[in-house]
What we know:
The structure is a homotrimer. Chain A is mainly beta. Chain A contains 6 helices and 25 strands. Chain A has helices at about 35-40, 50-55, 60-65, 210-215, 245, 335-340; strands at about 5, 15, 20, 30, 70-85, 90, 95-100, 105-115, 130-135, 140-145, 155, 185-190, 195-200, 215-225, 230-240, 250-255, 265-270, 275-280, 285-290, 295, 305, 305-310, 315-320, 325-330, 340-345. Mean pLDDT of chain A is about 90; it is low at about 1-30.
Amino acid sequence: MSPSPLDRRSFLGLTGAAFVCTLAGQRVSTEEGQIDVDRLAGGVEVPPRVAAANGSAASASAAAVATASAQVREYWIAAEQRPWNIVPTHRDQMMAEPVKGHSTFEAYAYRPYSPGFEAPLGPATVPGPLIEAEVGDTVVVHFRNRLKAPVTVHPHGIFYSNEMDGAYKGKWTDPGGFVQHDRTFTYVWECREGTEGTWLYHDHGPMDPLPVFRGLFGPLLIRKAGEAAPNRDFFLAFHTWDPSTTGLRNTYYCVNGKAYAGNTPTLEAKVGERVAFHVYGVDNFFHTFHLHGHRWTEPDGTIVDNRTFGPADSFSFEIAEDNPGRWFYHCHVFQHLHQGMNGWYVVS
Amino acid sequence: MSPSPLDRRSFLGLTGAAFVCTLAGQRVSTEEGQIDVDRLAGGVEVPPRVAAANGSAASASAAAVATASAQVREYWIAAEQRPWNIVPTHRDQMMAEPVKGHSTFEAYAYRPYSPGFEAPLGPATVPGPLIEAEVGDTVVVHFRNRLKAPVTVHPHGIFYSNEMDGAYKGKWTDPGGFVQHDRTFTYVWECREGTEGTWLYHDHGPMDPLPVFRGLFGPLLIRKAGEAAPNRDFFLAFHTWDPSTTGLRNTYYCVNGKAYAGNTPTLEAKVGERVAFHVYGVDNFFHTFHLHGHRWTEPDGTIVDNRTFGPADSFSFEIAEDNPGRWFYHCHVFQHLHQGMNGWYVVS
Amino acid sequence: MSPSPLDRRSFLGLTGAAFVCTLAGQRVSTEEGQIDVDRLAGGVEVPPRVAAANGSAASASAAAVATASAQVREYWIAAEQRPWNIVPTHRDQMMAEPVKGHSTFEAYAYRPYSPGFEAPLGPATVPGPLIEAEVGDTVVVHFRNRLKAPVTVHPHGIFYSNEMDGAYKGKWTDPGGFVQHDRTFTYVWECREGTEGTWLYHDHGPMDPLPVFRGLFGPLLIRKAGEAAPNRDFFLAFHTWDPSTTGLRNTYYCVNGKAYAGNTPTLEAKVGERVAFHVYGVDNFFHTFHLHGHRWTEPDGTIVDNRTFGPADSFSFEIAEDNPGRWFYHCHVFQHLHQGMNGWYVVS
């Protein structure tokens, strides 16, 4: 077999474990296997505004931060590479089966730091750290890119001006849409009225969606001002690790970077608690969220125990916990469920 | 061609009529064609709590039934195998075409019985019998498994304690999550406040989802207490028969086990009637429900004539019938529509 | 390679750029490539009621028009064939890349005419012309088929009697469900109470869905009586051009017939304006609509910036424009986004 032509765009025709090559926009040929993001990134030109800003000492966003009168929630977050084991137990506790095959690859992940990037606050994780604020706050994310390829932070839901959207836009790209290796960009976003909710953030740079599919996403929560937090907040990203981005043999349907109960988050709560679930999707697929032994009321008043959502959809619901036991949460697409998209919810 | 490796998990990467094998968790190799569920079931160990309960004369659920003070709705349901013809007319009335190919296979189906399993109340059907109750009721399902492989009944929406969820959970499995050949388990579920709605029930045992994809699912309706029933209640399961579970050559996109108008349910109503549609999904795919010549108001107040839903989603709507004629209902995914997921709604 | 058997039904198992043949209902064999609709249409029998009506001078709908007391909105629309360039700039402005490959094919498109089909009001377009009315109005569409294959106009949402549904129904087909080459049929539809909303119309004739997938669809808006229009109304169809219907090499994920920013509609608005988006789906896939820098309130009160919708789903939302800049709108299925389903929204 000759090498398959494969680039950023061509890998996108994913269907289950297989991918279908498109023939448009080919830039490189690779053997079947992991796409070489760094190599691809070498072919991307630095957009003109980004090049101009590179010579400037002042951050484009300094003025915006200075004039923000509301409370400022400040985060220092880096994008880093790290080994990531998708199925660390090599077991599927739901079906009581082994999960064969090598399951560790080099992921991209957001990592929280103390102010000034002095010291990491923990490891880089998939998903990245929770960004949390209240309506009225200003969120400032100091973002450092420790990857070789340019990446960004693009938020959902929150208010941001055009140059703060963290999106690559070809020749119209602002510096926040193309953060180069070892550079830092400071994003300033505003929690205006009407931005409350559970959202996600993710890379939206020139290599999109490859860095997202290698782990560059995380949760963003904007509470109403003064709103009392529930006893538990669970943030659950439903997404897929694909062979073309991991170099692994299998596709894994994941919750928060892990696959199969016992590897995915085992959520714990107690009877009597207010428990909030915050669910979002970050892949090419549509999913449902199903919780055994429980049901909740949707904003339209309907009672459900299963809900459809798509890529970048996010939603929350709260339950008053009343049912002890060992329960499953899972995607109810049977294929996804049985390829890892399930976990335990243990109520004592 | 050498035999394809194929097991419970590997068949799940379905896309249209094709399936993509995953390489994890292979337990058997089979020729292309129907997965041998009984053979696979032979490799599943009896979970410890199930083995312990097998020696016990008392049903784990007897106490619960005895203490139920509300009205008890009692059902006797067996899981059985039976021949099932997906396209009995061998015609597609929508397109006025023949539907070629053998369309009968050995399905799994729930069958209703009189008390004590004295006599069948009718044939085993796909979907299984309607389980119907009101808020405040207790539902008791005496379930007998006449299949060789262990299967269960797992309900949506209704309240159940942990040992009544009918779900296989590996070493944590309760007897209700692993009902063996020729054994009976009695499920006790409660229609508490906040469980009203249209739901589904289905197998969730150790062979999941193979038995579901061979027919083990059915509708569950919980009305509000004292609520007046409409003139017509139509329960419509949107699902797929796949070659790997039927052994047939083609994939069929079905409503209630049948494919193509004239085989799927021909619904009938009269002008002036209140007509309720109860729709749910039971496969790997997302569907829409579209009804010609009619529209309805969603709980959020929007008016629609087409609605997206996913696996295990269920929803209901009611119309005041005002438009006589021969109408289609169908999934509006064009591929699904034209591979059988359509039927007649005849209003006189 | 021997010719692949391929017909109207067999092309339906589309997955990304590939299609999976089903084996049912084969009528012709073709080389890989564009399906020959005209040739297939030659094999379809004229339904009995259509044949009977062909000899009649009077339109079946004349009486209905005459008795309509409300305002009549009258349209003259033809279905025509025309060359259609999906990527006229041969550039993807989002990723600043060329889009290689021939992108012009012979589309089917609805074209607006002056009364009596005197003169075209503009070119045939994909989507077709907006049909617009208010609750209380009667919509009359004089439809002329200039294609060789029989096609129709089937509307969503609006009220229509059975013979006005524009749907092929095999032997039950009315003349409006099978409009032959060079014939005209007049559809009469009513904007009754409870039909307000954004809808779509599309072919639903005997070749369905081939003509839809070659461009026969368009938007239908029914405003509430006396409702003030927003400053801007954007109608966006999310759909796919597939090799089997275009004869082109690639699959294109499109908005309004075009793929990739700079080719898809560049929407323009000004700060302070009320801007309405009307979005609908017309292919085999589920999509999301995401708008950068903005969010909106759903009818159930939730705030979102991304929404899932399926084939023939349609929805609208309105924003009070407050955020200048060059923004993206796009489907957030990453595969679709990067195969063309994105565009610019420029706010000044």
